Automatic annotation (TrEMBL):
Kinesin motor domain location: 68-423
Pfam families: Kinesin
UniProt organism field: Urochloa decumbens
CC annotations in GO: microtubule
Gene3D superfamilies found in the cross-reference section: Kinesin motor domain
Regions that span the bilayer: none
Top-level taxon of origin: Eukaryota
Official protein name in the record: Kinesin motor domain-containing protein
Key words, A-Z: ATP-binding, Coiled coil, Microtubule, Motor protein, Nucleotide-binding
Amino acid sequence: MAAPSEPASPPSPTTVRRNPPRRARPPPTPLASAKPKASSLSRLLEDEAAAASIAPPPASSSSPQEERLKVYLRIRPLPNRERCKAVARPIPGKDQRRKPKQAGGGEVCLVPTGPNSVALTVPQSKLLDPKRGRTEVFDGFSAVFSPDSTQLDIFEQVMNPLLDDFLGGKSGLLVAMGPTGSGKTHTIFGSPRNPGVLPLTLRRIFNAQDENKVADRPARSFSLSMFEILSEGKGERILDLLSDAAECVLQQSAIKGLQEVPLSNFADAENLISRGMLKRSTAATNANSKSSRSQCIITIHGVRKSGDADSDSLSRAVLTIADLAGAERERKTGNQGSRLLESNFINNTSMVFSLCLRSLLEHQKNQKKPLEMHFKNSMMTRYLRDYLEGRKKMTLILNVKPADDDYLDTSFLLRQASPYMKIKYTSLDDSSDLVSTKRSNASLIYQENKKKRKFQKPEVLVVERKKNTDTDNITKVSEEDEAQHKFLSSELQRVSRSETIMTNFARALWTVLKQYKNKLLESENAAESMKELIRDKDTQIMQLKKELEILNSHCSCKNVLVTEDASIDRDDSVSSGQSGQNLLSLSSKPDLGCYDASVDNFHLVAGEVSKELTCHGPDNSSARCSLKGESVSCDTSSISLIDEQELSSIGLKVEVQAIHKKLDASERFSEQTSAHTGDIAPSSSHSDNQSDQSFTEHHMLQCQRTEKIRISLSPQCTSCSKKATIEQSEEGTEELSKTTVEDIQHDNNTREVEHPDYLSSSQQVNSETEDVSSSQSSLQLPGMVSPQKKLDELDIEPERCEPGGGKANVEYVTGHSQAPEQRSDCGDLVPCLLKEITSPVKASKAPSKVSEAEEGADKKKGLASRPGGDTKKTRRRLQPAASMMLKELIGVDLDADTKREESGKSSSSVATGMSEELIRLVRARPVRRA
Ligand SMILES: Nc1ncnc2c1ncn2[C@@H]1O[C@H](COP(=O)(O)OP(=O)(O)OP(=O)(O)O)[C@@H](O)[C@H]1O
């Protein structure tokens, strides 16, 4: 052992203690480093440690029951060249004594401070504050071997205990770890001249074998296997160094294909080792000219036959020695390419190894922390699993380099491995390898099952639990495995509990999802039904729209402005004072605006009537049944072209239809107008001189008269539509006069001159055609007096009716309330229910026929009041059937309202009765054909 020739300098004032706390200084014990020929550096460090009251724990401080992991520290000596230079350099002073200088100005950062402690000083080059040094003391090592310690010292202190256990049947492991070039291989293998631990062990084994033979003790058999684990960039490989076979396979903790070479003597064993060393992968790096590139593991299997002759049991023990490849720093080694990959592999393996020990330590500190399975990350740790999990005894020897340049590596190793000395061995597996193998297999099965359980169903888990139970039974082979069994059981319970929780959660989640799915389906069904309903509604809406369009087309005659109707009405009501006086000119009476709704209903009826009755003639004359600015136009221009019979039938048909519709309209109208009776009642109140009874009787007479007139319309229409001759017109007129207008005084002149078209009109069966012809037709028959001429004669300026542009006041009057002139015209037969006082309505087409009656009454009294004196000026026309029906309908409704007020009777019943009577009369009366 080379000892430094220069005393080391004391560490810097700042001291950081690691590991065991300060204790009382133990009594001096014979340590390997405290030998008399120990270096002065060691003695100096011991003095320093004593001065600092740093007392390393004794190696035997732990109780026998609580054996700890032994960690030895060996400080590699400085290279010879540097040592020679250091020897020639004198020690200048005290400060320099505190830290030994290396050759070339280098210093030693690590010095042993005791048999179990070292002091690591931060080099000046790495100090942030050079004035303040910092020294770390690592204590608690089983032994600290100074640089001048020999191989034999290492063997005796480090390997002998393990060897004793091995020879006693206990397995053990010695691992040499440290940075590259720190002397691991040197420590394990040594050299021919300076053999290492392994050769010395083999020598002792065979020496012991010889002693046993001499002592006649049971013979033992030993075998040796040697392999390396390396990486060539494609994963780890196991190569057997004692045979030429291909690479071996690691199965659990056993290596298949690994040759175990029986050992017969030391020489053979030494040759095997030498051969294996030759095959080991080494390479030159900047840090080591012969750097190991693999983890080398040597196993010595010792089989001892039991001393009991009757027993055939064997005691197996394995002594394992691992020479790990040193951790490398790329900056120092300068490795590139494959070397760099090897460096990564080496460093990773060293890290995994350290993690396993760290996890074991933490698990032993806190049992709640599970023992991490870091050993799976590397082949070496998998092979050494039993040792890394604390089931077998293991010993570490840390090889370090004391130079300042190696400060980082040294510091890292000491910080990393110094806690390992706290690892305890409470349940060492001292039984045979068979039991160990069973336990290992059981553990692996458990781990594999634990993996599978995560993805298997509960049914399968039952079987797996049975298997686990069997596995647990296997673990009960040894009583010493009771703790392990408890741990596995607790783990199993925890896993089972977790599985139960997750299973229940999954079931609950599945149930919720099912419920949501059902709700979704229900919602979809509801949406479909709603869609169908909407489609049906749309269809109904479309049908209603079509019907509405049809109705609109039927009511195309609506919304026609009142033009000549007003004049016609006025003409009829004033000039003739005949049955046409019954025509209501409601259109010019905005006071009846409240009847709009009801009148609209009536328009529908009247519109249909007019549609069928509409005839087009050459004169484009039209007659309209006006009602509040709207009228049902009845074009009479083409009446002449229509067959008389057809017209007759049409007339009857129209009459009947009109009657039926009138009944409905009258009912609606009466219902709606009943709400406005209050508006009408005041008007009716104006008839002061007329009693209600007389009014009712008069109205009944009016209705009867109107029916008579209506009955006469059909033959009149048929007679005038086909031939359209004056004679026919006269005949029709005569017929009309005979049957219906007996009380009406007709102008004889108008009988002679009637426009055929006008006469052919079934809607407006007027006895006079001059008004129509003058307004619409250019045909001027002899004897006809143009309206303008008549106006001129009357000196009445024609008024133009504007659609809805004027206001008209409606006054309810009875026949007795009428002016005498009008009463003379109408007599008692045709009462004027409504008297148009003012009629500012203007005609849009033809000038309005001046209501001679009212004009005469208002402006030219006497002229219009004379019953027969204005025969040339007044134009009397038979009201169109529709107009008469309308008038009758309105009159009935109004009367019905009045009557309802008086007697409470329903007007509809009266109307219905009258209509039925009318229908009966129509049907009973044969149609007269021309
Ligand atoms: N205690 C010692 N005394 C004398 N020489 C030593 C000592 N330790 C190591 N050496 C020498 O240092 C050199 C490197 O040693 P070694 O190869 O054992 O280091 P290592 O830790 O195995 O390196 P690597 O991890 O790279 O294999 C060798 O030449 C060896 O002879």
